[in-house]
Write a structure and sequence with these properties.
With 575 residues, the protein is α/β, with parallel strands linked by helices. It is built from 21 helices and 22 strands. Strands 3-2-4-5-7-6-12 form a seven-stranded mixed beta sheet, sandwiched between helices. Strands 14-15-16-18-17 form a five-stranded parallel beta sheet, sandwiched between helices. Helix 1 (7-17) packs across helix 6 and helix 3 packs parallel to helix 4. The longest helix is centred in the middle third of the chain and has 21 residues, at 192-212.
């Protein structure tokens, strides 16, 4: 039987068929759907872990105990998970451990274009890269076999175009595979004396794999009439086949270790050799270091995604005319009724500097709010603000504030808070608690009281938590109440020590069946104050007056609160 599956779903299907017992992840586009799909199988324990490091440690525990495990994350999450992963590469596995990591060339929803292939190289862990959903499933199953045969974790690397594209996949039955748990201190306790011995085994394993990889059939040569050979993998393979159908192609299934001898043989039959790859010159540099002459990044560049059109332009030298009409740019914007909008309106009004974090609320940096002034990575806002205070002093911190979401606070913001309290900081922190992980599609977290399967569980009490961390100044506000929001921020920002303000109201999209009243603007005086909210439901007419789009409006009534002329009112019955 065949099913049309996303690449992410195909990885999950492969894990299911391979007999995976445990799946753990923190949501992150473009990898989120892997664990969402796995949570639909009753044979598999699945969870949203609080962050990627914890997910990796859960997967490692399952593997050590004898159950196959899959851990998935986006590329920046792999940085968070790297600490336990590098050591598990030394210990090796009991049952197989596969890590699905999804890169995001072009940064559709990410803060950088990290190339995860280098993690295979630096952690000494084999990495496979599928080019469609069928391969995503097949490679995942194969990865578990490799993991146990070579005593190593194994990577499956996806990119956005594979993770979020659909193609047909042959569905098979689930295998039930389980290993006995055996205590093995020399293998699993990485004190230096044991780790030094394990490092020798890692190098032996890598040499064996580097030789064997030349005979694996997931690396293949596809002959062509042209004398210029192309080397590629993953989504780029699909672009190459469409753009250059007559060119001989070496399609890599393994991107670490590379099948160098097989590639050398391919090179010997080509007049010229070009590596086409997104992001870094990873394959290109590896081949050059092995004495194989290739061209690559001098043609394709270092940034962004490739496409069949770009490859035609680069290799064949002609511009593809699409014939499609160019659409106007539409920058991302917070939803009408977003609970974060009022917070940013007040931050802007008070001319505060805000160190932000990853999530929907990142959009507070955009016009007209302009109320987020730095953003580094998940959980960084609090420690960034603490560092600013230590560099510039207590007076500077009275115009400085950290902004972090509820899920992100649990992910890795808590440690920043503990650090700030411990080190006698003088900062104010806003936790924007909208009761969900909003940007990745409303996944639950410990503050929601629900598991991935929507089961009831303990609800993390943010007020009690921050007080337990040593914060005495704690307030809870409604972000729709602008007067309260402004008053409480003013009160906290001048206090010594660490202050925490929890802005609590559920995401407007949590209940998608909800029906709303709408706002109406009557006798507009054209002052433009309501436009400063940046609400997509408010539009400016040609005569300078303002109107409300009733199809978008949720009657949050922030516009009513900023209007000086009482021109806004709530009307009608709920839609």
């Amino acid at each position: 039987m065949k099913k049309l599956l996303l690449g992410d779903h195909a990885v999950a299907q492969g894990a299911y068929e391979a007999g995976v017992k445990v799946a753990a992840a923190y949501p992150g586009t473009p990898s989120t759907e892997i664990t969402e799909y796995l949570s639909t199988f009753n044979d598999i324990y699945s969870e949203w872990s609080v962050n990627e490091k914890v997910a990796m440690e859960v997967g490692i525990g399952a593997s050590m105990a004898g159950g196959r495990a899959l851990v998935s994350m986006k590329h920046v999450g792999l940085n968070v998970a790297a600490d336990p992963l590098f050591t598990y590469a030394y210990t090796g596995v009991n049952a197989g451990l596969v890590i699905a990591v999804a890169d995001d060339p072009g940064m559709h929803s990410s803060q950088n274009e990290q190339d995860s292939r280098f993690y295979g190289l630096s952690a000494h862990i084999p990495m496979l890269e599928p080019s469609d959903s069928q391969e995503a499933k097949d490679f995942t199953k194969f990865a578990f076999e490799l993991s146990e045969k070579y005593d190593t974790p194994v990577f499956i690397r996806l990119t956005t175009r594979i993770a979020h594209s659909r193609s047909f996949v042959e569905i098979s039955k689930r295998q039930e595979i389980e290993f006995d748990y055996k205590q093995d201190i020399a293998k699993f306790v990485m004190v230096p004396a044991n780790a030094r011995k394990r490092h020798v085994k890692v190098e032996e394993r890598e040499r064996r794999l580097a030789s064997d990889v030349n005979s694996f059939d997931i690396n293949r040569i596809e002959n062509g009439k042209n004398k210029i050979g192309i080397i590629c993998a993953g989504a780029v393979y699909q672009y190459v086949k469409e753009a250059l159908p007559d060119y001989p192609v070496f399609k890599l299934g393994f991107v670490y270790p590379l099948p160098v001898e097989k590639l050398r043989e391919f090179a010997s039959n080509c007049d010229d050799l070009i590596v086409i790859e997104e992001l870094e010159p990873y394959i290109e540099n590896a081949l050059k270091s092995n004495g194989i002459s290739v061209r690559g990044k001098e043609l394709t560049g270092l940034q962004g995604e490739l496409s069949s059109e770009k490859i035609k332009e680069i290799i064949l030298g002609y511009k593809v005319i699409s014939g499609k009409e160019e659409l106007p740019a539409r920058p991302p914007v917070m939803c009408a009724g977003c609970t974060h909008r009022g917070i940013y309106y007040v931050i802007n009004k008070l001319k505060l500097n805000a160190a932000g974090d990853i999530g929907c609320y990142s959009l507070g940096c955009n016009e007209p709010l302009n109320a987020m002034h730095s953003l580094i990575c998940m959980g960084a806002a609090i420690a960034n603000t603490h560092g600013m205070e230590k560099a510039k002093g207590k007076d500077f911190s009275k115009k400085n504030i950290a902004v972090i979401g509820d899920s992100t606070f649990v992910h890795s913001g808590i440690t920043g808070l503990i650090n700030a309290v411990y080190n006698r900081s003088n900062i104010t922190i806003l936790i924007l608690d909208n009761s969900t992980t909003g940007m990745t599609g409303h996944q639950p977290h410990p503050g929601t009281g629900k598991t991935i399967k929507n089961e009831q569980t303990h609800t993390l009490d943010f007020e009690a938590l921050v007080r337990a961390c040593g914060v005495n100044n704690v307030s809870v506000i409604d972000p729709y109440d602008l007067d309260m929001t402004e008053s409480v921020i003013k009160e906290h920002i001048v206090k010594d020590g660490v202050s925490v303000i929890i802005a609590r109201r559920p995401c407007i999209l949590l209940d998608k069946t909800a029906k709303f009243d709408v706002a109406e603007i009557d006798n507009c005086r054209k002052c433009g104050m309501c436009l400063k909210l940046g609400c997509p439901a408010i539009r400016k007419n040609k005569d300078g007056s303002v109107a409300v789009d009733s199809t978008l409006c949720t009657a949050c009534m922030l516009c009513e609160k900023v209007c000086k002329f009482a021109s806004v009112k709530k009307v009608g019955d709920a839609k």
